[in-house]
Amino acid sequence: MKFEFRTSTKCSYDNSDPRCVEVATNLPGKVAVRNSVTGKIVLFTATEWTDFLAGAKVGEFDVS
């Protein structure tokens, strides 16, 4: 089976600046995140992804 990526709703895709984050959640137990410029993919387990999103929502990864 193949990852089916979708672009983040926060992405303002522009052909002159195509930097976006793409996420695929179509494979059970796996989440893939892809950089739209380089095509590089980072894989997460479903639990890791859930934990990451929870941390992001409370500002755990904010740069000060």
From TrEMBL:
Give the matching InterPro entries.
DUF397 (IPR007278)
Q: Name one Pfam family in it.
A: DUF397
Q: Where is the DUF397 domain?
A: 10-57
- UniProt name for this protein: DUF397 domain-containing protein
